[in-house]
Structure formats: structure tokens, C-alpha cells
Specification:
Elements (H helix, E strand, L loop, with lengths): L1 H31 E5 L14 E5 L9 E5 L5 E8 L5 E4 L2 E4 L2 E3 L5 H6 L9 E2 H4 L10 E5 L9 H4 L2 E2 L3 E10 L5 E2 L2
């Protein structure tokens, strides 16, 4: 009889431990971190199709962060923040200007060196996409893929509301031989 009670208690302890582990895992995934798979080439050469990354759901978004957001097509996109609220964004002769100041984009250096038929990024101003926009409004962000010629980003889908962001990402964890922190 005592052995049966002991086995039931041990079984109950295992069930409680598993339930707590599942609850903790669900909380971490829902509120803190979640995995995502890169789908497509819009972030090449920084990220490759099939890379698996961890998305951090906490913290503020800064210029040049790699972010995940819910796109209008019902998919999640991975892009880079170029313009934050209050910024005027412009590209001229393959140079990014934020509020009239030239900005370095070292993550594009490798790709720019490979381009032999013009500029990687075509010329534009924020107001070219919406004449009412002189700057990125509060609560919105202007995002672009690193593969500028083949990226569906804010130049096509418009500025992105902060409510649409899942989080930011910088850790590739798969494939194992490609584990890295990207910037």
C-alpha cells in the first residue's frame, strides 16, 4: 500500500514538473523569444534563405536593427530598420541620407562591390512614396532589405507600424556551421 502511494506521488511530481516546464517554455516563446526561418533572398548577403534565427521580442527598435514584422500579405518579413520616427530618408547615388546627413552602411559593402551595372539602391526620397510624408511619423518605421534590388520593403509596402513588429533578431543558430551574430 505504501509503495503504491509513493509511486503515485512520484508520478504526480513528474507530471507537475512537465507541466511547469511546458508553461515556462510557452511563456518564453510567446513573450520573450521565438524562432523564425528566413524565407527568400531579400536580406542577402547578410542572411540567406533557410537561415534559422532567434527573434527577441523585448526592447526598443533602433536604426539598422534587423527586425521581423507582420507584412500586409499575412506573412512575416525580415528587413532592416532604416528610418525611425522623425527621420527624413533619402537615397542618392547609392548613399543613404538620414535628415540630410550621409550614413555608413557597412553591411552593404560586400554587395556594393559586386554590383557592376549601376547602383545597388536606386535614388528616392521618403516623399516619393507618399507626398504627405516629410519624415517617418511617430509609431512607424521605414524598413529595407539588404538585397536592395530584390527586396519588397517600405519602398513597396509603405512604412510599418510599430504594432506590426514581432521583434528584432541578430542570432543565426542554424545551420550549425553558419552560427553567427549579424549586424
Amino acid at each position: 500500500m505504501e509503495k503504491e502511494v509513493k509511486e503515485k506521488n512520484e508520478l504526480w511530481e513528474w507530471i507537475k514538473a512537465l507541466l511547469i516546464a511546458f508553461a515556462v517554455a510557452a511563456i518564453i516563446r510567446y513573450f520573450l523569444f521565438t524562432p523564425i526561418v528566413v524565407d527568400g533572398d531579400s536580406m542577402m548577403p547578410t542572411l540567406e534563405n533557410g537561415d534559422r534565427m532567434i527573434v527577441n521580442k523585448m526592447g526598443e527598435l533602433d536604426r539598422f536593427d534587423i527586425v521581423v514584422f507582420h507584412a500586409p500579405e499575412g506573412k512575416d518579413y525580415i528587413k532592416r530598420v532604416i528610418g525611425v520616427p522623425g527621420d527624413h530618408v533619402e537615397y542618392k547615388d547609392d548613399q543613404l541620407y538620414i535628415n540630410g546627413e550621409p550614413m555608413d552602411e557597412p553591411y552593404l559593402d560586400e554587395y556594393k562591390a559586386e554590383v557592376q551595372d549601376g547602383n545597388l539602391t536606386g535614388d528616392f526620397r521618403l516623399e516619393d512614396f507618399d507626398p504627405n510624408l516629410q519624415e517617418v511619423p511617430e509609431g512607424y518605421y521605414f524598413v529595407m532589405g539588404d538585397n536592395r534590388r530584390y527586396s519588397k520593403d517600405s519602398r513597396h509596402i509603405g512604412i510599418i507600424s510599430e504594432d506590426e513588429f514581432v521583434g528584432k533578431t541578430s542570432i543565426v543558430f542554424w545551420p550549425l556551421n553558419e552560427i553567427k551574430i549579424v549586424k
